[in-house]
């Protein structure tokens, strides 16, 4: 028997970091990049083949806190304490790691879906999301849950931690360019640093988070009203707030500046920051210009994506 499953990448449109502190944020799936998992019966035991990392591990050898071992264990338990199958689980991913595009989250999500399929089951999005959230805690420390939510639902989400998950419609699709600084930046570190800074200065950080939350609400309203071309100033303002939080970097600021100089409508870092990716909102006709400016300014890779209701 052989089964396959996949999960898309994601970006945060606005509200990252503030979302950890209960403010709303918007995230959207990015289907140009994805993680794929194949499970094929073998005659030995459960083996995990991470093709990109060139690693082959026995499931039985993995430490319980290892993210791959943990998501498999949690999924088997959700499948009614199923025994690990005699099979090889192969992971392939086109999502760059530690870059704010949800690589680890997408791999976990694809594993849950593939294992469920292998056992003839199909978990709904909230179940997949909550299993993956358990592993996010190993990756990220204090994750808000937005990454596992947007990837499991596969639709734009307006997310408030421990309160609500709302998918919403995008009557007029809009175009974003995503540019990678090439700097690996684990989310856990940026999230931990923001926590320390917040503990040292609640007043300043609460005010920054409030403003990010207002941006997320205003952005949703523009998108739902079919006015996404007016999102630009909100995104750029969100970048300024993230800089004040201390999660930008010279490379991110350079790419944001280059996109704006090339007439992007707005631009910001996306995700944990310090490295990873930035996004720029563009009008169709300026795509080549913005793309060229970002590559000239040092972007290691640039991809364009259209945000729509899926
Ligand atoms: C990471 O994609 C988004 C952060 O807000 C962390 C989180 O929400 O868990 C930086």
Keywords:
310 residues, alpha+beta, seven-stranded mixed sheet, four-stranded antiparallel sheet, 9 helices, binds (R)-mevalonate
Biggest β-sheet strands, sense, barrel:
7 strands, mixed
User: What string, H for helix and E for strand, traces the elements in order?
Assistant: EEEEHEHHHEEEHHHHEEHE
The counted number of beta strands is 11
> Spans of 5+ residues with little confidence (pLDDT < 50)?
none
Overall mean confidence score, pLDDT: 96
Helicity, as a percent range = 40-55%
Radius of gyration: 19 Å
Global morphology = globular
**Strand content of the residues, in percent?**
15-25%
| Through-space gap between termini | 30 Å
| Number of helices, where a helix is a run of at least 4 consecutive DSSP H or I residues | 9
Unique ligands: (R)-mevalonate
Which structural category do the helix and sheet elements fall into? alpha+beta
Structure commentary:
The protein has helices spanning 67-78, 103-118, 125-140, 146-153, 187-200, 202-224, 232-245, 250-261, 287-296, and strands at residues 2-14, 25-41, 47-50, 55-58, 87-93, 157-160, 164-167, 174-180, 266-269, 277-282, 301-307. With 310 residues, the chain is an alpha+beta fold. The strands form two sheets. Strands 1, 2, 3, 4, 5, 6 and 7 form a seven-stranded mixed sheet that branches. A four-stranded antiparallel sheet has the order 9-10-8-11. It is globular and about 60 Å long. Strand 3 and strand 4 (55-58) form a beta hairpin. The chain is 40% helix and 25% strand. Helix 1 (67-78) runs antiparallel to helix 3.
């Amino acid at each position: 028997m052989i089964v396959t499953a996949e999960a898309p990448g994601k970006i945060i449109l606005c509200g990252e970091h503030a979302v950890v502190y209960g403010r709303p944020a918007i995230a959207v799936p990015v289907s140009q990049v994805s993680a794929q998992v194949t499970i094929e019966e073998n005659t030995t035991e459960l083996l995990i083949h991470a093709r990109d990392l060139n690693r082959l591990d026995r499931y039985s050898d993995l430490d319980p806190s290892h993210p791959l071992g943990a998501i498999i264990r949690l999924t088997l338990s959700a499948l009614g304490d199923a025994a690990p199958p005699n099979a090889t689980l192969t992971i392939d991913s086109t999502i760059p790691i530690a870059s704010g595009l949800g690589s680890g989250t997408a791999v976990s999500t694809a594993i849950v879906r593939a294992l469920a399929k292998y056992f003839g089951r199909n978990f709904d999005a909230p179940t997949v999301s909550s299993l993956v959230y358990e592993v996010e805690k190993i990756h990220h420390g204090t994750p808000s849950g937005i990454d596992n939510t947007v990837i499991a639902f596969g639709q734009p989400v307006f997310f408030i931690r421990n309160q609500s998950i709302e998918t919403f419609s995008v009557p007029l699709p809009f175009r974003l360019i995503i540019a990678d600084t090439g700097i690996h930046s684990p989310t856990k570190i940026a999230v931990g640093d923001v926590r320390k800074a917040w503990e040292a200065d609640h007043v300043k950080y609460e005010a920054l988070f409030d403003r990010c939350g207002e941006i997320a609400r205003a952005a949703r309203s523009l998108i739902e009203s079919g006015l996404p071309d007016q999102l630009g100033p909100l995104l750029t303002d969100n970048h300024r707030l993230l800089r004040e939080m201390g999660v930008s970097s010279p490379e991110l600021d350079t790419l944001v500046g280059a996109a704006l100089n090339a007439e992007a409508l707005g631009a910001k870092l996306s995700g944990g920051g310090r490295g990873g990716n930035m996004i720029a909102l563009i009008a169709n006709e300026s795509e080549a210009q913005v793309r060229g400016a970002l590559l000239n300014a040092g972007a290691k890779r640039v991809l364009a994506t259209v945000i729509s209701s899926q």
